[in-house]
Amino acid sequence: MKRLAWSLLIANVLAAGFFLARDHWPTASAPHSAPFNVDRLSLRRGDAPAATPRPSALPVEALCIEWRGLAADEFARVREQLKTMAGERVMSFTEIPLATRQWVLFPPLPSAEAAAAKADELAAAGVQDVFVVQDGPWRNAISLGLYGNEEATARRVRELEGKGVFGTRVELLPRQGTDFYFVVRSDDPDTLKDLGAIRQAYPNSQQSRIACPR
User: Which UniProt keywords are given for this protein, alphabetically ordered (predicted)?
Assistant: First the structure.
């Protein structure tokens, strides 16, 4: 009996100690999460606001200057000056005849033999004023006549088509002894300004801004 009483007393002491000590045990830590701190809030890289796109650059408009009124010797000197400028800058120039003729022709054939055969074929169809070009950039083309105006040229083309000749073309050729002028083209306004400075040495010539030929 005395042993039972001691056993109950020890059990009560242990139970009391358990409940008293439990209040001092560390609580299980919750999953770690940083406190929401507005002052330290930062956006992830993927959430960064998109940069405002820059407006695309507008295409640069080509500028053209027409340069007229140069004497024959002046024209030759200016040609060399323009060649030098074209080698140093982004620009080009064209020599335009003041007076032209219109050349009706059949485009170059692969060989002189083919051109001769085509000329015979045209002659057999009743086409007159036919000859094969022997040299130059139009070698082996077939000349079908030179005309002084568009009306005469158009009449010739209609005549040829009436005889079954198609595929002709019209080229402008300078008239013999005609004067020329320059058309200078560049995307750089400073280049065209420099042309004005060069013109001071040729006071009888004129420069004017024009729409660039297409």
Answer: Signal
